[in-house]
Amino acid sequence: AEVFCNDAPAGAHKGGYTPFTVELTHHLRIGAENTLRVRVDNRFDEDSALHIPNDYFSYNGINRPVQMDFVGEDFLEWVHLTPVRTEKGWTLRAEGRVRCGRDTALCAEITLAEKTCRAEVTQHGLFSVAMNAENVREWTPDSPELYEVRTVLYRNGEAVDDLIERTGFRTVEVQENRLCINGREVFPKGFCRHEDVPVYGSAVPFEAMVYDLQILRDLGCNSVRVTHYPSDQRFLDLCDEWGFLVWEENHARGLEEDRMRNPNFERQCEDCIREMVCQHFNHPSVYIWGILNECASDTAYGRSCYEKQFALLRSLDASRPVTFASCKFFTDICLDLVDVVSMNLYAGWYHDMPPDVYIRQISEWVQRS
Asked: Which residues, given as ranges, of the chain have pLDDT below 50?
C-alpha cells in the first residue's frame, strides 16, 4: 500500500495482514479540504518474498478497517499488559511506548478496576510498572473474564492522551508435555481458518466472523488456528470474549530454501512478526505464536531462519510458547527450537498410509527425538 495526502507521498507499507500507521501532519492544509488516497497493488513481484501464489486466494483492495486518529504532540503508541500469576495472587505488568513531541516531564497513569498506579516515562519514551490485581477472576476457555485497563498520559500534570486496552488474567505454559492455562491442562480442539467468505472474499464482515465462531462452538471446538497470516483484530476480540484459544502466525507459507534466500525474506518476516506481536499482544485468546508454516525446516539455511525468527518472537513476548507447522516429518531438523511440536498430517490426501498408522509413526518418532 502507498498512502498519499493531497497527492504527496505520506507513507508506504509492504505486507497485507498487519496494521500500519502513517502520519499526515506535515501534509495537511490547515483550514482547507484535504484528500487522503490509498493505492494498493496485490500483484506478485520479486520485491515481496512473502506474497506469492498459494493454494488460497490473495485478494486485492482494502479488506480491513481503516481509521483516522487525532492526537497531540505527546501520545501513547502502545501499552502491553502481561498478567503474572504468583502464590500470593495476580499482578499486572504494564509496559508502553510514548511518542514525545518535546522534552517535558511525562508520566503514565494505569487504572485497573479502580486501582491506579503511576510510572515515569523515560527519555526514550518508555515506561514500565507492575501493580497488584486483587480479586480478579481468571480468563479460561470456559469462563473468559475480561478487564479494561485505562492508561492516561500526563504532561506536567495535565492529561494529554489516553488508551484503553482489554486483558484477561491467564498464563500459558508447557509443563511436562502438557499445555496448561493457569496451571491446568487444556487440550486444543478445532480447525484452521482462512479469511475468505463467499461474496465478500477476504473483506470479512463482522457478522461472518460471529457465524464462523458459532459453527466452531456447535462442533465442540475450543480453538482455532488463523492460517497463514495474522488475523483481523475484530476476530481476535471475539475470540477473547467467547473463550476460544488462538494460534496466530506470521505470513510465510510453503517456502522452500530458494524462496527463503530472497534478500527481502528475513526483513519482511521480521517486520510481520513485530507488527503482529505489537498489535495483538493483549489478546488473552492468543495462546501460542507460530512462524514459517511448512517452510524449509529440513535444511541448514532454513534452520538458521527459524532460529532467528524464534529468537525475535521470544524477545518480543516471553509469556507465550512458540511453534511452527511442519510437513517434513522424519527429515525436520528444527523441532528442538519449539515449545510445542506441530505436524500437518495429510493421511489419505498426499499418500495412502492409513491415518492411525501414520499418526502412530509420527508420534513415536517425535517422542524419540
From this structure: none
